[in-house]
Amino acid sequence: MQNFRRYDALKNNSGVTDSVVVEMPVQLWVNNEALTVTMASPQDIQAWTFGLLLTEGLLASKSDVISYEEKFENERISVHVTLPNDRSVQANKRSLLSVSACGICGKTDFLPPSGKLTERSAALTAQFPSFMKTLNEHQSLFKETGGCHGVALFDKAGELIAVKEDIGRHNAVDKAVGQALLNEVKGNALVVSGRISYEIVVKCFKAGVPNLIAVSAPTTLAIDYCKEFGISMWAFVRGQQFTQYA
To answer: Residues with Cβ < 8 Å from 159, sequence gap 6 or more?
Structure first.
C-alpha cells in the first residue's frame, strides 16, 4: 500500500509537486470486539497489531494469536485478531478515537503498570552514534515527506532488529516491538526520533526493553516512570552528546 501521495502545491508562489505522508484509520477487533481505532501510516500493520497487543498486555508471544486477518476497504484498514477466550478486551478498550499524537488517548482510566526491569547496560553510550546513524539511514518515508516519526530497536549485541516509521510516535514503537515479537527476538535498546513521553515509556516497559534513547526531549512523567520501571533513559542525543535522566 502506498505510504505517501504527491500533491500539487505552491511554494513561495511557485508550483511544486510535494510528497505527503498517508494518514489512515486502522480499526482493531479482538475476538469480534472493537478494541481501538488509531490514525496511522498504512505500512507494517501486522507488526503494529502484535506490538499494540503486547504493550496492552493481551499477548506475550506470537503463538497467542489464533488467527489474524487484515482488510483494506472504504479508505480504512480493519484488522481482526482471535486470541484465547480468557483474554479480556474490556480493561483495554478505548471509548474514543486514538489519534496519532498520543498512545493512551481514549483510555477511560489511568492505570500505570507495576514492576521493574533489571537488565540495564552501563556501556551502551558508546553505541549511540551508530544507533542514530542506523536510524537516520533507514528513515526513507521521513526523507520523502518530512512527516513521520522513526523508531529503531537493537539487541544486546547492538545489532538492528527493526526500523519502523509512522505518523504517530506510539505507533512506530508498537511496530518495532511487534516486529521483534514476530521474529521472536529480544530488544535491548529502543531509539526514537522524537519526544519521550509517558506512553512511550510504558510500551518500552511492557516490551521488556531496558534502555530508551531519544533525539528529542523527555517529559516529567517519562522520567519518573523510567526510574519506577528500571529503564535507563537518555535524551537530546547528538553524536557523543547526551543527557541521562534515569
So the answer is: none
Catalytic residue IDs:
102
124-244, what's its fold?
Cytidine Deaminase; domain 2 (3.40.140)
Q: Tell me, rounded to whole angstroms, the distance of Cα 175 from its chain centroid.
A: 5
Q: Where exactly are the structural domains of the chain?
A: 124-244
Asked if residue 121 has pLDDT above 70, the reply is: no
Output the nine-digit C-alpha cell for 117: 526491569
- DSSP letter for each residue of 24-75: EEEEEEETTEEEEEEEE-SSSHHHHHHHHHHHTTS-SSGGG-SEEEEEEETT
127-140 confidence digits (pLDDT tens): 999 999 999 999 99
* Residue that the C-alpha cell 518530512 belongs to: 146
User: Distance (Å, rounded) from C-alpha 99 to C-alpha 95?
Assistant: 12
Which pLDDT value is given to residue 96? 44
